[in-house]
Structures are given as C-alpha cells and as structure tokens.
Protein 1
Amino acid sequence: MKRRWLLWLLFGVVPTAFVPTLLGQATMTTIRTNGPTSARINLVYLAEGYTTVQLPQFLVDVTNTMNKLLTIPPWSSYSNYFNVFAISVASVQSGSDHYTPTTNLVNTYFNSTFDSYGTQRLLTIPPNDRDGNYNDGYGKVVALLQQFVPEYDVAGLIVNDTVYGGSGGQYLLASVNSASGEIANHEIGHTFAKLGDEYSTAYPGYPDVEEPNTTTNATRGVKWNDWILPATLVPTPDVSSNYTVEGVFEGAHYHATGWYRPKHDCKMRTLGVAYCEVCAQELVLSYYNALRPIQAKSPAATNFFFGGPGTMAAFNIAILKPPTNSLAVQWFTNGVAVGFATTTNFAITAAQLAPGTTNEVKVVVHDATGYVRTDPTSKLWQTNIWRQFVMGAPAITNPRWTGTNFTLAVASVAGFNYVLEFKNTLTDPSWTAIQTNPGTGGSVALTNTGPVGSNRFYHVRVQP
C-alpha cells in the first residue's frame, strides 16, 4: 500500500480469527454518471460492515458522501469530470472491530478495525498491525474493483460504524460518524492527490517524506512560492493578520517545529475548513493527471493528404469543459496562431498552406483556472497535431495529339494517383475521369484514346 502510517482519521482491520464470510454476490450501482469510464474520473465506494438488510442504507451513505465532496471547492468546479459507483457486498455482522475502550470484534467482509497502529480512530483494513494477511482486506478490494470498475481512479470503503475514524492511503476509509463526510473529504486528499497531514502533534516513526503541502524549506524557494505575496514574511508568523494569506507556517507533518505548511489552516489540518490554495491546486492537477480535456478529435488520422489548391479540410475537437469556467482553445498552422480560431472547429484550404511539402495544423487546449499557479509538467494543457502533405498543381509536360489520341505527361510523387479528366465545356458541372496511373516519383504518361468532339478540356487530378 502507498501509505501505512496514516492520519488521526483512518482505516479498519479485523483479526485473522474472524475471517469474513461471503454472504452473496456483490452488486454495483451507478450513483452518478457524466460519461464513459474511459473518459471520466471514476470514484468507487465499497460497503464494509453492512449486513444484507443494511445495504440499502449503504447506497444512501454513498450518495451523501458524494454530495459532501462534489459540492465543495475545488471538486464542485469540476463535478462533471466524475462518475461515482457503489459496490454493495454484505458482511456477517455490522460495524468494525474495536480494541478500546473495550474489545469488540465483529465479522465483516474486509476485516476493518479501529485502533490501528496504536491510534484509536485510525481505521484500516489488512494488511495492518492487527492482521497481516493481504487477502483479508486489500486483496478483496482489488478483486471487486477488477470485476466491476477496472478503470477506477479512486476507491474507498464506507464503514458502517458510528465511531469517528478513517484513513487515507491506497484506498480511503471513513466511518458513518456525523463527521464522516468531512473525514472522507480529508482522506481523499491523501488518496487522490497525495497530500500530507498538516498536524503538529508528534507521531513517532512517521516517515519524514515531504508531500506537496508539507516541507522543511522555510525560505522563499519553497515549492509553493507562487502563492506567497511579496509582502508576506517567510517564515510566516502564525498570527491572526496572516490567517488568510499563503505563506510558510511552522507546524506540519506531525512536527511542531522544523516542518512547514502553506496556510494557517486547511482541510488537511482541520475538518470543516476549506482546502488551502496549495492543496486545491494539487487536487486540480490530479484531475488532469487522471483525464485529458480533449475527448475526441476529427480527423482521427494525424497524417493525411491535401489535394489541389481548392481542397478544404475541416478539423474538430470535443472538449470536457468544467461547469464553472471555459477551456481556452487556439489553432495554429505551421506554428503560427490563427487569429480568431479559438473554437472547437477549424477549417483550412490547401491554398492556405505551402504546396509540395508537409504542413502542420495544431490545436492547443488550456484550462486557465485560478486554482493553479504552478504547473511544471503542463497537466492543464493538451495539444493535438495533424500533419498533411499538400500537393501543388502537377507540372504537365509534352501535351500533344497523336491521331485521335491526346497524350501528356506529369511529374509525379510516389504514393499518389494521377487521374486524367475532361469536360466538353467549361460550364459542364463535373469532370469525367479517363485514366488513372500511380505515381512513381518520375514522369507519368496519361492518354485519352478514341474519338473526341470539337472541343475538349483536360486537367490532371492528384489523389492519395
């Protein structure tokens, strides 16, 4: 698992003597859908400690958990990026294991337990300090996810126990305590964006590894410096006049000194408050790490052929726009931005491109959200490029009559076909094909055989 040392709010476990019994087939319910699983961020919640008759309540609890998450920033600003699913699986008994203040062990499907690693409200599943068997906990989660939602992005367990507790790591856990919604919102910060705890209380043995919102660097070179105003002192005194600003505040990562956080308070420090700007930024970056804003493109091929000067090509992209802001779109031809080409559709003629060479049409999509100031790997940007070879007018040589036959030659490019066409008057609505020869890279001969009228007009069309 990604994180064994966890919060003051976490996971659950059960001893090996109480291996849960499968009571029936697991089922999946779609709670929220915004698109195909291949093109959305998929949140999956699994039932732990719900008996068969309690499983309808699990669906209610999942819906409440989802609503408490997707209605707070920055999640609310990207709510259409998410699908939400519930996997219902029954336990023999309800609740979770407890060891304090008294021991109370129950038979549940994922062997969840409070009191993990010496912390009463640390709720985990195996492998942990109570049960080291992966197959008693994590293994079952993996099997159900692979069965129902193999394209999941975040998975968590809702534990049917009213005692305050939870955890975040490879999977998040939250009990159904009255604060469970906020517990889940805190824990998903760990699971989805790898955010760290900003607590100052000591947790001996906790790994001293920095997260996006914790650091030992108390200088202007701190990784979130783009959020710090020039007038803000660094390190930042934790006084009321600084409560609303980003800075470098001492006390984080289970250390009272020597470790720093971005703001006086944050959801990663205190339940019921908002994510600070740095944590919100990391969450938004994680959204775009899981999906891309360009959902579809046309043409599907990235390399194709442009015919004669009058040929037109149409390009189109489908983008996933957040509900509260637009995505910026810009089209380019051969590296130059096209003025006013800022919609999802773009058209261009071959005459606008260089003939006899390969040209490039590019579209760049960018989420210019105010949630993000630092995007070192350009997660909020996506580019798609089409390359097309534009044929110039074929050079015709040696046109002549030989009896009733008209012949000519054209300089060809290998890989293209050369079609001799005619019309009897220039007002005729269409051309009639006579002969097609493949290009060889050299001269290609084309011939019109048979009788002709008093007038006939010829041209050569090039096609792939």
Note: Residues 10-193 form a domain with the Collagenase (Catalytic Domain) fold (CATH 3.40.390.10).
Protein 2
Amino acid sequence: MLVPRLAVAAIAALMLLSTPACSRNDGPTLSAPDAYGQARAGRLTLIDVRRPDEWRKTGVVPGALRISLAAAQREGGFARQVAAELGGDKHAPIGLLCRAGNRTTHVQRMLREAGFTRVYNIKEGMTGSSAGPGWIARGLPVQACPRC
C-alpha cells in the first residue's frame, strides 16, 4: 500500500514541476557593467522605466530612453511606445532599468508577451538590490535630469 501512494505522490510532483505556470522564467538578465558596455558599443538600447521624479532624484543614464511605465500605460501602452522608439523592431536588444529591478521584471514579461524577443533585465537597477550594488554604486555614468 505504501508503494502505490509513493508512486502517486511522485507523479503528482512531476506534473506540478512541469506545469509552466509553476515555473519561473523571468528571462535574461544583465549586470549594470555588462549593460553599460553593450549600450556604449551600440549593441543595446537602455530604457529607464522609472517616474520623472525618480529621474530627477538620481539622474539618468546618458543615452537611455526615458519611458515611464506609469505614464506610458496611461498614454496608449508601454509596449507600443517602446516599439515606436525602436522603429517597430521587436528584435532589437533592450536593457531595462528601474530603481531596484522590481518593475523591470514585470516590464520584461510584458514586452516578451507583446512579441519583443531580446529583452534584458538589469535587475540590480539604479540603486541596487539583491542582484548587485546598482548602477550608481558601481560608479557608472549618470547625468542630471532637472527637467525630467
């Protein structure tokens, strides 16, 4: 009687582990230095998804597109704005930045569902997280944005 119960438990566990909804696929990530190097070489477009008050507080990465997730959702869709900025190229490599990697995890998933194929999350963000010390603490370039 013990063997059939173990077999049922093993099958149930296998089914749960193989269900896509139960697995976590956040997508590819980049460290801040790797993202900076790729952006500087012209191989990656950086997109800062924070709010304008956050841009003013910490500054922004030179050359990064500033598409506030909050504002873009009200103004017709974040994915549509990203596509417009990239000339419709959903295969262009994108690096997403926010304060500490939480919003970018959500945005990465949203963009992938919208058909973007090369979306990288810079999970340490501007100010740091468990993924790393962050863009600012690493001493990577930031410029003031007083009119953001």
Note: Residues 26-121 form a domain with the Oxidized Rhodanese; domain 1 fold (CATH 3.40.250.10).
Protein 3
Amino acid sequence: MLPASPQRIRNVRPGIGRRVAWMFLAATALRAQDGTSSSPSLALTPATRLEQVNTRAQWVTYRGMQALHLAPLPGQEQATDQEMWAVITGSQFTDGIIEVDVAGARRAGYATDNASAFKGFVGISFRVRGDSAERFYVRPENARLDDQLFRNRTTQYEAPPQAPWQLLRRDTPGVYESYADMEPGAWTHLRIVVRGHTARLYVNGAMQPALVVTDLKHGTSRGAIALWTRISADAYFANLRVSPLPVTPDRAGAASAPPVIAPVAGPLPAIRDVVNGRVVSTTFRGRPALHLIVDPAKARTDEAIYALIDGPPFVDGRIDLTLAGRPRADAPADSRGFVGISFRTGPHAEWSEVFYLRPLNARVDDQLRRNRTLQYASDPAFPWHLLREESPGVYESYADIEPDTWIALRIEVDGTRARLFVNGASQPSLVVNDLKHGTSGGQVALWAHVETDAYFGPVKITPPAASRP
C-alpha cells in the first residue's frame, strides 16, 4: 500500500468532491516556485506522494515488476465514463523527458466488441493545473485489430478541458493520433519528450516518435505530472522517470542510423514487360538492383511505372522484397518518393492492387503526413485520393522508413485481405480487408510513380501453402 500522506486526497468522487480536488491541485501548482525549467529528476516509488482523484492507488507485482495499480473507488467498479488520476505531489514540469512503463487492458465486465469505447486507455498527463492538462495516452486494444481505422487510433494526444480527443478528431482528423504496435495487458514503454510547444511520443524503445504534436494546446504552461487512465481500464504504471532535457538541443533519436535490412535471397526478378518506363540493372547502396526509369514522354504525368515480373499469375500467397525510393532530381517539391509493389496486376497494368510508400513523410513533424507514409490503392477505380476522401484513415498508416535507403516489405494476401509488414516487424503496419478487385489473379509488378527514382532487390513470391507459418 502507499505510505500515509497528509496531503493525499482520498476517495474523491465525481461532482463536488472532484471539484474540490482540482481546486487543491491548482493551489498546489500556484504555490510552486516560479521559473520555466522542470523540477529535478523524479521517480515513482512506494514513497512517492500522490494526490488520488477518483481512484485507489495500490502497489502490486504485475508481470514481474513492482507497479502502481489504479483501481476504481468502492461502488464505482462498473462505471463507464470516469477518469482516474494519480498526481505526483509537488511535481512541476515545463520541458523535459518523461519515461514510464504502462500496461492497460479493459477490465472484466465491459463490452468486448471492437467498436466499444473500452480500449484499456492508459497514459500520462503533464503540465497539469486544475482541470487543465496536456496528455498522451494509448489504446492498447486497438493496436492489433484487423480494422485499420482503429489501429491508426492506438496513440492519442488531447488537452482537456478545451481540446478533448473527440473535438480534435472531429476538427483535425488524423493529426493527433497514430499507429504503434503494442499488446493489451503487456508492458509498453512510453517516452515523452517535451520542449516548448512541441511534444513527441516514442513507444517501446523506437528511435523515432509514433506521434508528434507541434502545437500543445496550453502553450508553454507549467504544472504537475499525473498517471492517468479511464475507469474501464485495468491500468498499471512502473519505472516512471522524469528528467531535464539535454543541455544540447536534440531530437531524441531523430538522427538515428537507418536499420540494417537483410536482402531477400536469390537473383533479381526477370521482367516480362514495363509500362511507362524501362528497367536497368545497376548497383544501389552496395547491392544489385533494378532501377526503374521513367519514359520521358510520361515524366510530367501523374502515372506509375509497372515492371511486370515474369511468372505465373498471383492470387494468394506472400511477397518478400527490398526496395528504395527517392524523388527524381527534377520532381515537384511535393513529391514523396512513391515506391511499392503491385499484385494481381493486369497483363498491361490495366488494373492492379498496390501497396506503396511515401518515404519522405515518415520523419517530418507534420503528423498528418506521417500517418500517410503507407498507402493502399486499387487502380483504376479506387485511386488513393478517392479512398482517402471516402474512407479517411482506413487505407493508409504510419511506419518509420527513410528515403534513399533499403526498406524490407512483406505482403501477405489471402482472398480479399492483404497485410503489409515493414522492416521485419512481427505485426502489419497496414491491413486491408476489402481488396477492391476481389479475388482475381494477376502479375506481381515493381511499382513507382514517374516522379521517383526507384530501386528493387530480389523478389521472393511464395504460394499459399508454403507461406503459412
């Protein structure tokens, strides 16, 4: 149990009790010394003094770690629309780094359908002043669903009271949420780097943030740090550490080296036909490669180059390859290095299913662009802009990649379903459940927009029986 604390708020319930609690917390924040730097390094231990709001904080052992469990107050066990907080007494935070291990899953007794609001919400509030806060949280039960729209809502930023998630999603869809892989109930490591108006959320040791917010809604305010969850979640916290930013400004990993991608074994694919361009054998980044070069007559169009691989028609199975893309030197400023793979492609590319990448999107600070790093399209009837207009967030997603660098892709196709895996990830970054051409077969083709310098290594195509684990 937590040590006794004369300042801890006990058994705060919704309504008047909660209002009193927030008045107390606001007064605590205002009594803190003036200044803009964060308080000295903080950690979460059984000796940490906490202000408990709508919750009972209990120290337990969870999945091998000593953890703080936020549990509902007696009589509130089946409430559905309450928040639970544990505010670190006396903490004052403006800029700095917050690291914590969290675990969240819906508690027993709540609806288990994918569309329900019970997603194991767990996260961190910072710069807390009264009922005002900045917050990053995760929905662990979204991350591995087959519904890409839910997957793209795994991480979330909000700034109550004036900018809750509902308002942000309605007014600026796709800007304050993103995909990251995690598992309900398992430990997930969060790292939050806050500087001025900008905050970055890193998940499970990733060198690049899954979510970037460049316009924190409360500006450069100062306030407390709090553990946060919703009452429908079974939430645990461990290994909280709060430390100042480095003296030398950095991007907390943004300059990390690209991953070393193992090439697919085998020769370069034999090409039977090329549409809108030609293919040249070359070497790229020390590896044999096929370079797609645009037909000059198509260079100023909005078309794609298809290099159809020789072989039997492809219906279901697995496709493994490495590729790299960068905008051509004369490409428009908004070109993103579009490069990918087409499957079930018509004999002369009259139709196709395509997974492609926008490598220049992945590491910008604009989260909306980041969330459009991966794309599915189905030509000619369902181009990317139509899918985005009619079903925003369903056919695109985020993954960390770089332009001009080898990227490993794995595509698994089964009936009307296809999944895209990036750089050896165990979970897909993009899931499509309704391939627009149904189950028709066709060729596999190397694919790139005509504005792109695209390079491809060997391609391995595995039929269904052999591709199953």
Note: The CA atoms of residues 201 and 211 lie 5 Å apart.
